[in-house]
């Protein structure tokens, strides 16, 4: 459905109405646990969920959002306002539209697997999104049981651990890494994202064996997943903490905040860039660029720098 473009004045009026609504105490508040079409499932205290409609023009509402709800006649509930967010993970879809993924999350779990094989450009796109929103990111490499020698699969730990990212190898078949995985979810609102078939729902189901979570084998013909999960869902974990399982992505083009240099999404470049000659250096071919210098000396991994250049060219108009 095409979205109606709103004028600045209309947006201000909608925001003012939401703001007034948030302040009034005549409404219920709840947590969005899933959103499907025009219906939204909201959890109230204590853990009861209600099916709600949405007041028009509220914008995207996603798992993790806290919302204000009005109870209407004949037991109909309607979401009237989105409460202020701590953060919002967003991506840009194939049509250039910004899509919200999840709100108020404390960590992004980038789920990779032995098969389908990891794509490090996609990984860097995820990491950039997390850096831009100030969200912690953890890298999971699932299906580790499929490797005969599981030492630093795909060289990922060697690149990303020195940057401060936690890298966990997991298997739901052998339980490897599962206690570490469980531990890092405690007390967090985590979102599990990655391409189809890497095992996001399998990992979720491992933790919540009583939930009816759909899982499907990847295609034998092309090693790709079948896009089994269709909508995101927030689950409460037994040991505390919440986990959002999301549908497999085809790509994750980050929503780039143009007010900030793209290199700020790459931890090691942010650090090196402080020593560049020009404060607005793009680290392309400028003289006395500390980033290029670090790449040539091996202090910055070439693949990370190449991925930065690719994202830079995609972010620039023309
Ligand atoms: N060998 C092995 N297979 C796994 C593991 N985890 C998941 N799988 C298999 O991977 C396939 C895909 O699992 P899903 O959990 O449906 O993958 P998904 O990432 O949720 O996929 P979408 O919902 O399509 O995005 C299933 O056949 C699982 O049994 C693992 O640790 N080891
Ligand atoms: Mg799934
Ligand atoms: Zn530079």
Can you walk through the features of this model?
This protein is α/β, with parallel strands linked by helices and 318 residues long. It folds into three domains: 27-82, Nucleic acid-binding proteins (OB fold (Dihydrolipoamide Acetyltransferase, E2P), Beta Barrel); 88-253, P-loop containing nucleotide triphosphate hydrolases (Rossmann fold), CATH 3.40.50.300; 256-315, Probable gtpase engc, domain 3 (Ribonucleotide Reductase Protein R1, domain 1), CATH 1.10.40.50. It has eight helices and 14 strands. It has a six-stranded mixed beta sheet with strand order 10-9-8-11-13-12, with helices on both faces. A five-stranded mixed beta barrel has the order 1-2-3-5-4. The chain has a three-stranded antiparallel beta sheet with strand order 7-6-14, covered by helices on one side. Helix 2 (120-133) packs across helix 8. Zinc ion binds next to helix 7. Residues 273, 276, 281, 283, 286, 289-291 line the site of zinc ion.
Produce a short descriptive summary.
This protein folds into three domains: 27-82, Nucleic acid-binding proteins (OB fold (Dihydrolipoamide Acetyltransferase, E2P)), CATH 2.40.50.140; 88-253, P-loop containing nucleotide triphosphate hydrolases (Rossmann fold, 3-Layer(aba) Sandwich); 256-315, Probable gtpase engc, domain 3 (Ribonucleotide Reductase Protein R1, domain 1, Orthogonal Bundle), CATH 1.10.40.50. It has eight helices and 14 strands. It has helices at residues 8-23, 120-133, 156-160, 178-185, 200-207, 267-273, 290-297, 302-315, and strands at residues 28-36, 39-44, 48-54, 66-71, 77-82, 88-92, 98-103, 107-113, 136-142, 166-169, 189-193, 233-236, 242-245, 253-254.
């Amino acid at each position: 459905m095409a979205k109606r473009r709103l004028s600045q004045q209309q947006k201000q009026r909608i925001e003012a109405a939401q703001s007034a609504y948030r302040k009034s105490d005549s409404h219920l508040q709840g947590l969005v646990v899933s959103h499907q079409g025009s219906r939204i499932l909201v959890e109230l205290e204590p853990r009861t969920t209600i099916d709600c409609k949405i007041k028009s023009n509220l914008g995207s509402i996603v798992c993790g959002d806290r919302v204000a709800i009005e109870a209407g006649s004949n037991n109909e509930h309607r979401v009237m306002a989105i409460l202020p967010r701590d953060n919002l993970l967003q991506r840009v879809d194939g049509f250039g539209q910004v899509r919200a993924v999840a709100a108020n999350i404390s960590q992004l779990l980038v789920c990779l697997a032995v098969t389908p094989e990891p794509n490090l450009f996609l990984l860097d796109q995820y990491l950039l999104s997390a850096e831009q929103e100030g969200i912690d990111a953890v890298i999971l490499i699932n299906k580790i049981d499929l490797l005969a020698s599981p030492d630093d699969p795909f060289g990922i730990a060697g690149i990303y651990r020195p940057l401060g990212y936690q890298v966990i190898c997991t298997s739901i078949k052998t339980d490897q890494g599962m206690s570490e995985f469980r531990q890092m979810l405690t007390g967090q609102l985590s979102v599990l994202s990655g391409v189809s078939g890497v095992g996001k729902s399998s990992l979720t189901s491992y933790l919540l064996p009583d939930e009816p979570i759909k899982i499907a084998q990847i295609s034998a013909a092309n090693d790709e997943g079948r896009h089994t999960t269709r909508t995101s869902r927030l689950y409460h974990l037994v040991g505390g903490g919440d986990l959002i399982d999301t549908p497999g992505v085809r790509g994750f083009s980050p929503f780039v905040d143009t007010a900030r240099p793209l290199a700020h999404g790459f931890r090691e470049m942010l650090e090196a860039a402080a020593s560049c000659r020009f404060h607005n250096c793009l680290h392309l071919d400028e003289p006395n660029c500390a980033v290029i210098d670090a790449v040539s000396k091996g202090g910055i991994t070439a693949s990370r720098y190449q991925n930065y250049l690719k994202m830079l060219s995609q972010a620039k108009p023309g």
